[in-house]
Design goal:
The protein has 13 helices and 31 strands. By secondary structure, the protein is of the alpha+beta class. The chain has five domains: 179 residues, Rossmann fold (3-Layer(aba) Sandwich), CATH 3.40.50; 85 residues, Translation factors (Elongation Factor Tu (Ef-tu), domain 3, Beta Barrel); 74 residues, Elongation Factor G (Translational Gtpase), domain 3 (Alpha-Beta Plaits, 2-Layer Sandwich), CATH 3.30.70.870; 88 residues, Alpha-Beta Plaits, CATH 3.30.70; 107 residues, Alpha-Beta Plaits. It has an eight-stranded antiparallel beta sheet with strand order 11-10-16-7-8-15-12-13. It has a six-stranded mixed beta sheet with strand order 2-3-1-4-5-6, with helices on both faces. Strands 21, 22, 23, 24, 25 and 26 form a six-stranded antiparallel beta sheet that branches. It starts with 6 loop residues before the first strand and ends in a 7-residue tail after the last helix.
Length: 599
């Protein structure tokens, strides 16, 4: 057992694609945590989706056994974190489990939007920061530029900055020594009442819920009776262990340790992230502070493609929410899609990842409705409605005014692309707030933008007009009054609640035309004519038709009297008329996402 003053808890934070996971590989390699045979790129990104997309989605923990230059052994608990703004909640949880953080900056990109956001989160959590410049093996490595940016933006002294390469392993030994010398050991008394913070969890079909914990006080071992302080249920600990990086059983966890415990917790709602674990025989007086509850910013409906899979989807959402604390859901029904769930996410990437994980990990086939944001509707009688489902839009005659969520967005981009990015932002109803010049030729454009515009294709547009150089960071900045209308989409006269959208009046007609045009392309021909319309109230603002399939009923008529052909055609026409009265249009899944990519 390693003494508490030889334990260090730290995480790596950086902007997306600045080399966090690659550097973590070299740290694992240097400590011998992974054998040469098992070594692969991005070891801690063990989710199939993470490896496919090349991004970190979940924070991962690992305990490293390190021998310092002075010959003493240390236990270094590393938490690798995501870089994308949609997963910033994962970063905030990791920071609460640590005493220090390695701030990684790409030598060629410099300080970017999410770098700044992560620094402020780390400072708010009271962490010791170690600045490090990554990718020093690149040919265009400019150490002076990186050091000057870190000094100008955060006040670091040049001699504080370390230089590392996740590719070659250069500077890893110096980074380890800095972690040992600069990051303080965890505080806490192993003999005090147990206080363990649940910073993540997952569900195992054989062991139940597995709680990932950071012990701040006390100790826990198999056989101990424990209680989650937010509930009344009691459990008996069956296993405790650490990550190295696979789960490895240990005899006991003490104050300052990062590890996991299992206790036959079958109910997924009984092991919530942010809860405090304590022992029954020696309970803590009060729970730990936990985490600020994340507020969903984007909402969409998830429905099983086959209504018989509703219970399977409900069970999958229960288990998935245990592993993703920022995900929220509640039941809803749709006339078009049947029974499903209204789900809340932190952003559009979070939405895509969640849907894909649900389909892969739980073998489901899902239909997702178009994403929406939460609007605030003030009625004439003084009531305030919070609306996250456009299909529940109230009667316009009852509405006094509507407010929509807005964000403060910071777009970091090279100067040569400033004009194109400003043009795109203004086309998305952005309000220009100012411009800041960074080191070199980079500029930060500050805008106030409606959240509804950001969640569709604004980020893709930025990457396109800047040739991939622009980066985006944003935070919610409240609500503002706006002239919004509900656009109904109707198929053969029947409104489809899953395709309803809320739009600013100035852009409603353009969006409606694009939706109708897209639907015309994706809806297959039926045996009868299909009419597609978009309307604001009773006024149709866009329409299209899908011509019916037509069987050649006269193909066997060779010459002869024309009245025979007419008779067959009239009979076909009458049959289609009857079919139209009772028939239902088959709408493919891609139609429900048609309002996403309108261009």
């Amino acid at each position: 057992m390693i003494a508490q003053d030889h334990v260090r808890n730290f995480c790596i934070v950086a902007h997306i694609d600045h080399g966090k996971s690659t550097l973590a590989d070299r740290l694992l390699e240097a400590c011998g945590a992974v054998t040469e045979r098992d070594m692969k790129e991005q070891v801690l990104d063990d989710m199939e989706l993470e490896r496919e997309r090349g991004i970190t989605i979940k924070a991962s923990a690992v305990c490293l056994d390190y021998v310092a230059d002075n010959g003493e052994r240390y236990a270094l608990n590393l938490i690798d974190t995501p870089g994308h703004v949609d997963f910033s909640y994962e970063v905030s949880r990791a920071l609460h489990a640590c005493e220090g953080a390695v701030l990684l900056v790409d030598s060629s990109q410099g300080v970017e939007a999410q770098t700044v956001a992560n620094v402020y989160m780390a400072l708010d959590a009271g962490l010791e920061l170690i600045p490090a410049v990554s990718k020093i093996d690149l040919e265009d490595f400019d150490p002076q530029r990186a050091v000057e940016e870190l000094a100008a933006d955060f006040g670091f002294e040049p001699e504080q900055v370390l230089f590392t390469s996740g590719k070659t392993g250069e500077g890893v030994r110096e980074l380890f020594e800095a972690i040992i010398n600069l990051i303080p050991p965890p505080s806490g008394d192993a003999d005090a009442p147990l206080q363990a913070l649940v910073f993540d969890s997952k569900f195992d079909p054989h062991r139940g819920a597995i709680a990932y914990v950071r012990l701040f006080e006390g100790s826990v071992k198999p056989g101990d009776r424990i209680r989650m302080m937010s509930g009344e249920r009691e459990f008996e600990v069956s296993q405790v262990g650490v990550f190295s990086p696979e789960m490895r059983l240990v005899e006991q966890l003490h104050a300052g340790d990062v590890g996991y415990l299992t206790a036959g917790i079958k109910g997924v709602k009984e092991c919530r992230v942010g809860d405090t674990v304590t022992r029954i025989d020696k309970p803590a007086a009060e729970p730990l502070a936990g985490y600020r509850e994340p507020k969903p910013m984007v909402f969409c409906g998830l429905y099983p493609a086959d209504n018989a899979d509703y219970e399977a989807l409900k069970d999958a959402l229960d288990r998935f929410s245990l592993n993703d604390a920022a995900f929220h859901y509640e039941p809803e029904t749709s006339a078009a899609l049947g029974f499903g769930f209204r789900c809340g996410f932190l952003g559009l990437l979070h939405t895509e990842i969640a849907q894909e994980r649900l389909e892969r990990e739980y073998d489901l086939e899902l239909v997702a409705t178009a994403p929406s944001v939460k609007y605030r509707i003030l009625l004439r009688d003084g009531q305030v409605l919070e609306l996250d489902n456009p299909a529940r839009f109230p009667d316009p005659a009852e509405i006094d005014h509507i407010e929509e969520p807005v964000v403060k967005a910071a777009v970091t981009v090279p100067q040569r692309y400033v004009g194109a990015c400003m043009k795109l932002s203004e086309a998305n109803r952005g309000e220009f707030l100012g411009m800041d010049y960074l080191y070199g030729d980079r500029v930060v454009l500050n805008y106030r933008l409606p959240l509804a515009e950001i969640i569709v294709d604004y980020f893709d547009g930025l990457k396109s007009v800047s040739r991939g150089y622009a980066s985006l960071d944003y935070e919610l900045a409240g609500y503002q009054e706006s002239d919004l209308v509900k656009v109904d989409v109707m198929i053969n006269g029947d409104p489809v609640d899953a395709l309803v959208l809320i739009s600013h009046r100035s852009t409603a007609e353009g969006k409606a035309r694009k939706v109708v045009s897209k639907l015309k392309r994706v809806i297959h021909k039926q045996m009868f004519e299909v009419r597609i319309q978009a309307a604001i109230g009773s006024r149709v603002i866009s329409a299209a038709r899908v011509a019916p399939l037509r069987k050649n009923v006269t193909e066997k008529c060779y010459g002869g009297d024309v009245t025979r052909k007419r008779k067959l055609l009239e009979r076909q026409k009458a049959g289609k008329r009857r079919m139209k009265q009772i028939g239902h249009v088959e709408v493919p899944q891609e139609a429900f996402m048609s309002v996403l990519k309108l261009d």
